[in-house]
Write a structure and sequence with these properties.
This protein is α/β, with parallel strands linked by helices. The protein contains 16 helices and 14 strands. 41% of the residues are buried.
C-alpha cells in the first residue's frame, strides 16, 4: 500500500527520497562496449542470440519487412499514429532556430550558423513493452532539424522480428535506417560504428540501466540527450480532485517498471486517504498489476502539505519528469513551477496525453535533472558555429583594446597577433 507522509511531521529525507538502483552495471557495460568496438557485427549477432534469443542473418530491417509490418497494423492505429505525428510536428516546428548575422558597425560582420548533426541515432526500447510513441517523439524532431540521416536501433523478438507497431511508427516518421539490436551493444554500435551500423553523432532515447550506463560511457565520443532514470510522475492536487482519476494517473507511470516513481502532493488528508484506497481497487485490475504493485509499494508516496503553495514548493524540490496540476485555474500556478520536465494543466489532462498525442515531447529529464536540463527538442539535433569578419580599418579601431586585454591575462602572443597588422603604420 502506498505511504501517506505529512510534510513537517516526517523527515525531509523521507519526503524527498528517490529510488536508487542497487545493481552495478558499469563493468558489464564496459566489456560489452569494448567487444563491439573490437569485433563489430560479430559481437552484435552473438549478443542478439544471447539476450534476445534470436539468430539473425542481417541486422538491417529491409523495406519488405517494413511494408509487411505496416500491413499487419490495424488501419485505425495507423491513422492515430499519423494524427499524433502531425501534433508532434506542429509543436516541434516552433522550436526551429534560425541562423543570424549582425553587421551594424562599419567593417564588422559576426554571426551564427545553425547546422543539423549529420547522423542521429535513436534508441527505441523493446522488452516488456513496445513504444511506437518513442519512435515518433525521437525521430520527428531530428527530421525537423534537418538531419540528413536518422538511424534507429531496437531489439528484435525471439523470431528475429521487430514489433510491427514500432516499424509502422518508423515508417510514418520517416526513419532512414532501422537495425535489429538492443541493449548496451546497440549504443556501442551507434557510438563506434560496425560493418552494418553507421557511427552517429548523437544518440537519443530511453532505455534500461544498461542502456543508460552505455550512453554515459560513450558520451564524449558522441553526444547524448540525457541519462534517463526510472519514469516519474508527481501530481499536485487540491481536495476537489477525483481520487479515481488521480489513482489512475499515478498508475499510468507505476506500470512502466518496478523502479518507477508515483507521487501525489495534496493539501487534503481526506483526499490522500481516498486515493490510497482507490489505488487498492485499481491495481488488481491492471494487466501489469505486479509491476504497478511493486512500484507503488516501494517507490510511491502521498505527501500531505499545509497548502497548495507548500505543495508547489515540494514539487519544485523534487523536480519531477511529469507534473500534473490538478487544481482550479492551473494557469494561475504555472509561473510558480520552476522545475519539471513537462507540466499537465488542469483536471482533464492526464499525463498519457503527453506520452502519445498532444505534441510536446515525452523524452524528459528524470531523477531531479529537470532543475538543469530540458525535454528532447529540435535543439538536440543541431549544433551552432560562429563566424567573425573584420576589415583592416575595423581591426585598427580595436586592436589596442584587444592587445591590452591579452596582456592582462599574460598572453603576449595574443596581444602581438592583434597589433602586428597595424603596428608598422601607427
Amino acid at each position: 500500500m502506498i505511504r501517506i507522509l505529512e510534510y513537517g511531521k516526517v523527515s525531509n529525507s523521507d519526503i524527498f527520497a528517490r529510488f536508487e538502483p542497487k545493481v552495478n552495471v558499469e563493468a558489464v557495460v564496459s566489456d560489452i562496449i569494448q567487444n563491439v568496438k573490437e569485433r563489430g557485427d560479430a559481437a552484435l549477432f552473438e549478443y542478439c542470440e544471447k539476450f534476445d534469443k534470436a539468430r539473425l542473418d542481417t541486422l538491417l530491417v529491409g523495406e519488405d519487412e517494413i511494408a509487411e509490418a505496416v500491413s499487419l497494423v490495424e488501419p485505425e492505429f495507423l491513422e492515430i499514429l499519423k494524427r499524433a505525428a502531425a501534433n508532434i510536428r506542429k509543436f516541434h516546428e516552433k522550436q526551429v532556430r534560425n541562423s543570424f548575422i549582425i553587421n551594424d558597425e562599419k567593417g564588422i560582420v559576426v554571426g551564427q550558423k545553425v547546422i543539423p548533426v549529420d547522423k542521429a541515432g535513436l534508441y527505441v526500447p523493446g522488452g516488456t513493452a513496445a513504444y511506437p510513441s518513442t519512435v515518433l517523439m525521437d525521430s520527428i524532431p531530428a527530421k525537423i532539424a534537418g538531419c540528413p540521416e536518422v538511424v534507429m536501433v531496437t531489439p528484435p523478438n525471439s523470431s528475429g522480428k521487430v514489433n510491427p507497431v514500432i516499424l509502422a511508427a518508423a515508417s510514418v516518421a520517416g526513419v532512414d535506417k532501422i537495425f535489429k539490436v538492443g541493449g548496451a551493444q546497440a549504443v556501442a554500435a551507434l557510438a563506434y560504428g560496425t560493418e552494418s551500423i553507421p557511427k552517429v553523432d548523437k544518440i537519443v532515447g530511453p532505455g534500461n540501466a544498461f542502456v543508460a550506463e552505455a550512453k554515459k560511457q560513450v558520451f564524449g565520443r558522441v553526444s547524448i540527450d540525457m541519462i534517463a532514470g526510472p519514469s516519474e510522475i508527481l501530481i499536485v492536487a487540491d481536495g476537489k480532485s477525483d481520487p479515481s482519476h488521480l489513482a489512475a494517473d499515478l498508475l499510468s507511470q507505476a506500470e512502466h517498471d518496478k523502479m518507477a516513481s508515483a507521487v501525489l502532493v495534496t493539501d487534503s488528508f481526506e483526499l490522500a486517504e481516498r486515493v490510497q484506497a482507490e489505488l487498492e481497487i485499481q491495481i488488481p485490475l491492471l494487466e501489469r498489476s505486479e509491476i504497478a504493485r511493486t512500484s507503488i509499494d516501494e517507490n510511491g508516496k502521498i505527501i500531505v502539505a499545509d497548502s497548495l503553495e507548500c505543495a508547489i514548493d515540494i514539487a519544485n524540490e523534487i523536480a519531477p519528469e511529469h507534473l500534473e496540476l490538478c487544481v482550479d485555474n492551473p494557469f494561475d500556478w504555472l509561473d510558480s513551477i520552476r522545475h519539471a520536465g513537462s507540466i499537465f494543466m488542469g483536471r482533464n489532462c492526464p499525463e498519457a496525453l503527453g506520452d502519445y498525442f498532444a505534441g510536446p515531447n515525452h523524452t524528459l529529464p528524470t531523477s531531479g535533472t529537470a532543475k538543469f536540463s530540458s525535454p528532447l527538442s529540435v535543439d538536440d539535433f543541431v549544433k551552432k558555429t560562429q563566424y567573425t569578419y573584420y576589415t583592416k580599418e575595423a581591426l585598427e579601431r580595436v586592436s589596442a583594446d584587444v592587445a591590452y586585454f591579452a596582456t592582462k591575462e599574460g598572453l603576449t602572443a595574443h596581444a602581438k597577433s592583434a597589433v602586428i597588422r597595424t603596428e608598422g603604420e601607427n
